[in-house]
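To: structure desk
From: M.T.
Subject: fold request, one chain
Message: Could you run this one when you get a chance? Sequence is below, nothing fancy, just the single chain.
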Amino acid sequence: MTLVLTLSLVTGALVAIGLAAMRLVLGPTQADRIVALDVVFSASIVMTAAAALASGRALYLDLGLGLAVVGFVATVVWARLIESSPKGTR
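Reply: Done. Structure tokens follow.
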């Protein structure tokens, strides 16, 4: 049961990372890129949870918590950067 759950978590996270990477590169707007970055961070957190589930070590959950904080700060900083940019460069 744990193996099936871990594999489904990893598969779903990899699909989400792939689709978000495409959106991160293609855009078309900066807001799309911000959301894609947030999806990448969220999927990475799922990957750390899957690693914790597969290995039985809670250390990976600490790593996921760190990723959550970094992802939140990166999203806020990027959104503020876009908000302060001139209208023509969005």
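Reply (cont.): The chain has one domain: 2-89. Let me know if you need anything else for the meeting.
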